[in-house]
Amino acid sequence: MKILVALKQVPDTETKIKIHPEGTALDLSDVKWVTSPYDEYALEEAMRLKESQGATVSALAVGDDRVKDVLRNALALGADEALHVSTSEKCEDPFVVATYVANAVRDRGFDLLLFGNKGSGGDHAAVGPMVAELLGIAQANVVVKLTLDQGRFFAERQVESGLEVVEGKLPAVITTQKGLNDPRYPNLKGIMAAKKKEIISIPLTESISPALQTMKLAFPPPRAEGRQLAGTPQEQAQALLAALQNEAKIF
Amino acid sequence: MYTDDQLSIRDLARNFARSEVEPEASMRDRESLFASALIHKLGEMGFMGMMVPESYGGSGQDLISYLLALEEIAYCDASLAVAMSVNNSVVCGPILSFGSEEQKKKYLPDLCSGRALGSFMLSEPNAGSDAASLQSKATRIDGGWILNGSKAWITNGAYAKYFIVMAVTNPSLGKKGISAFVVESGHKGLILAPAEKKMGLKSSNTVMVTLQDVFVPEENLLGPEGAGLQVALGGLDEGRVGIAAQALGIAQRAVDESIKYSKERTTFGKRIGDHQSISTYLAEMESKVQASRLLIYRAASKIMNHQKATLESATAKLFTTENAVWICDKAVQIHGGYGYTSDYVVERLYRDVRVTTIYEGTSEIQRIVIARELLGK
Ligand SMILES: Cc1cc2nc3c(=O)[nH]c(=O)nc-3n(C[C@H](O)[C@H](O)[C@H](O)COP(=O)(O)OP(=O)(O)OC[C@H]3O[C@@H](n4cnc5c(N)ncnc54)[C@H](O)[C@@H]3O)c2cc1C
Ligand SMILES: Cc1cc2nc3c(=O)[nH]c(=O)nc-3n(C[C@H](O)[C@H](O)[C@H](O)COP(=O)(O)OP(=O)(O)OC[C@H]3O[C@@H](n4cnc5c(N)ncnc54)[C@H](O)[C@@H]3O)c2cc1C
Questions:
Q1: How far is residue A179's CA from residue B173's CA, in Å, rounded to a whole number?
Q2: H helices within chain A, ranges in order?
Q3: Average pLDDT of A183-195?
Q4: What confidence tens digit (pLDDT) does each residue in B280-310 have?
Q5: Rounded to the nearest 5°, which phi and psi values hold at B84?
Q6: Can you give the pTM of this predicted structure?
Q7: Which distant-in-sequence residues (6+ apart) come within 8 Å of B50 by Cβ?
Q8: Which residues line the pocket of ligand 2, CB cutoff 6 A?
Q9: Is B279 part of a structural domain of the chain?
Q10: Can you tell me the ipTM of this complex?
Q11: A208 in a domain, yes or no?
Q12: Owning domain of residue B306
């Protein structure tokens, strides 16, 4: 079995996000980059399938040289090969990324294509489903349990207030959700071995221009300062009631 | 100063420590809970036998990588760091240096992977700094030895599977009459006292172990008969820089916490960091941490190049641990009354750091060693 895991590089969730003065992009100067947490579930699931039933796992990332770090990390965790779809363009439009991924994997014979259900930060939740459409194969999204049997997949999906169980034919795209597994850390041997492995560069066959444009980035408005109510308990209760009625207009 | 490989290892240790070790470290301290699950994970990741070659299940990395990893673990939990350091430095180390091929194959893969934990039994109630005065006895019988005696301060004792035990095999030979053995847990004559109630390192396990007619088969003698002190002290320089690295991790944390607090807390209309006495403390703390790091690096580089490093290791241990105690004291001071409560991590650092000037050779012993190097014997 051949498994593809597509990986996105995102700012560490601990990073304090700053907006670039122009207002349409993030200020990336102090950012620490990591693999998107949702993609870590995808990678872990691939490694578990490799261990339990045998598979070769290919990791793929789209972007400039910086994204090679997520590929190295995937190799350290046990991926067999790393594919770098190399472009210096910004990859914010999910359709552009999905097209590049689909073109890169089309003729490589993957049985299972794993994606995080969304990239942390951008939250488009679009690349995986778009790749499935572009390739004309089945998809199951936001998956928290996955079983493969005789060329078919059985997936439990997290849906509003419940679970949905779907099945379909491989090859298929599965997008992964928190709860699917508990991603491991790489070990020292893996990290050292990964340094010696090659990262295969895949040139773009077509370059498409993004249809999505970021118009403005803004932080949520700061929370207004709290107010202390003075007086006796009765006066405080009266003042609170008045505030809820007249200002918050709850009643 | 560090190689790319060393930095990758440091980053992995840092990432693991801050995401997995940190969250419950203060709870483990409060409840004196031993971190078995984390030790297991450290083993799976390759941190429990870092300098053991891959052919025996280790990670095959160098001393500096080990020290960087240890510092990162100590930054979040000094108790976990001491469990890691004992296993790497005084259990795997001597087995690798003195063990037979069969012993290495038997013990190292389990010890390196976290499947088994090791303990080192040298100290006794009446033999600490003066280790050579130890009294535990090994009496030869058919097919092996019978061990009797008491061992004090045994780190990991209640959780260990393999114990390296030093005992007298020939009382008439003095220092040359001590031998080392590997004792396996589960023997009914291996009696554990309740864990010591320590000031710090509360989630590390330290116990007195009594050996009562413990039979040890012939093949468990580690190194030649009479070489017990070499087995125990062979990796002394590495052990000293290891404890220095542990102290450095604690001190670095104290500095970082103090900087953070100095920017948050205001008195008299200013951040406390902008009061001159606090800013002076911060500057001195930072200088001491940086100097310590370089001393450790210098000693470790010499050890890695197989040069004599007695002076360098002893100065690194003395300087780093004494200053780490000073730094943690100042960190509590900077935190004012809050630093005296367990709501702030500096309170734990202050207790944890204190032992680093005591074990693996007290500061007084380090001074003796340094002076002897300077003056000649
Ligand atoms: C938390 C903890 C964990 C430990 N883990 C282990 C372990 O896993 N295995 C193990 O074998 N041991 C372990 N030890 C023991 C440790 O190595 C000893 O505590 C240490 O060697 C000091 O010995 P002592 O406590 O008997 O002090 P002593 O040797 O009695 O020293 C008391 C004081 O006298 C000073 N002193 C002694 N001799 C001289 C001298 N010649 N000149 C000047 N001053 C001197 C010392 O510096 C010290 O200040 C541990 C100890 C602790 C506290
Ligand atoms: C166990 C305990 C019992 C206590 N009991 C009582 C009690 O019964 N009643 C009571 O009223 N209080 C009590 N206190 C409070 C105690 O008096 C305060 O903790 C103390 O005054 C320090 O204030 P702080 O903790 O807010 O530290 P801060 O004032 O915030 O000081 C933080 C640090 O900044 C330094 N600093 C502050 N200002 C300056 C400056 N201008 N220049 C240079 N350095 C500066 C301080 O020296 C300290 O190192 C108690 C505290 C403790 C820990």
A1: 63
A2: 37-53, 68-77, 94-105, 127-135, 188-196, 233-242
A3: 95
A4: 999 999 999 999 999 999 999 999 999 999 9
A5: -65, -40
A6: 0.91
A7: A188, B58, B59, B61, B65, B66, B69, B88
A8: B 265, 267-268, 272, 275, 277-278, 333-334, 336-338, 340
A9: yes
A10: 0.86
A11: no
A12: 235-375
